[in-house]
Write a structure and sequence with these properties.
single chain; mainly beta; 6-stranded antiparallel β-sheet; 5-stranded mixed β-sheet
Length: about 240
């Protein structure tokens, strides 16, 4: 990937424009509307076709796609994915700070894939829910596989930030880089009530997560309820 400063220059366009008046009630819709969104709809899949292997506990689900004309078979298990014949375990993905691998539900997981486009490599993304309590509905297990058809040593497997995010949140820059948000809550002046969300974009560069020097701020329509929001324009 290119240097972080080049990413910052490319990302300026993502936060410009008069969007503050528009109210969103879906993060998927918001992410899909961002310039540079890498993924569209997930691979179609019959949730009733989940299966298990003899002698093995846990369900599997399978998707098939042909991005760029290359046949790809993705087997989703609770703790791993297998792309054609290569297995990637969630626990071995390079995890963003504070993220920890957890089993997902294969039958309800969503799998996205995008072919190589000019300087940007092919990418595959898996997201799913996991068991949890409290505000677990605000978190998704998100795994990004860069160069999914490359040999295992040449592919990059990342565990992305989970709060109110999605595979759809991954963006491509004009120079072929990939960026994604680390979301954190914004509080009122008393630092007691959550009133918005700060989306800080990162990239993966030189084997580490690096800030892309770009932020988007969201304001919740109602404090503490993050599922309806608008974009706060920069001054």
């Amino acid at each position: 990937m290119k240097a972080t400063l080049m990413l910052a220059a490319t990302l300026v366009a993502f936060t410009t424009g008069a969007r503050a008046a528009e109210v969103y009630d879906s993060y998927d819709v918001f992410y899909a509307a961002q310039p540079g969104a890498v993924f569209g709809d997930p691979i179609k899949y019959d949730a009733g076709s989940a299966f298990s292997y003899p002698g093995e506990s846990g369900l599997h689900s399978e998707r098939r796609a042909t991005p760029g004309g290359s046949a790809v078979r993705i087997d989703v298990a609770p703790d791993r994915i297998t792309v054609n014949d290569t297995t990637y375990r969630f626990a071995r993905a390079v995890a963003f700070q504070g993220e920890y691998a957890s089993d997902i539900h294969p039958a309800s997981a969503e799998v996205f894939i995008a072919p190589q486009v000019k300087a940007r490599p092919a990418v595959l993304c898996v997201e799913g829910g996991s068991n949890g309590s409290g505000e677990s509905d605000r978190h998704r297990q998100i795994y990004l596989l860069v160069n999914p058809l490359a040999s295992k040593g040449k592919a990059t497997f990342l565990h992305l930030p989970s709060l109110l995010s999605s595979c759809r949140a991954v963006l491509a820059t004009k120079d072929g880089g990939l960026v994604f948000p680390k979301n954190s809550y914004l509080f009122d002046d008393a630092q007691e009530t959550r009133v918005g969300l700060l989306m800080s974009y990162y990239t993966f560069e030189n084997q580490r997560f690096v800030p892309a020097l770009n932020e988007i701020r969201l304001r919740f329509t109602r404090p503490e309820i993050p599922f309806q929001f608008s974009v706060v324009e920069k001054d």
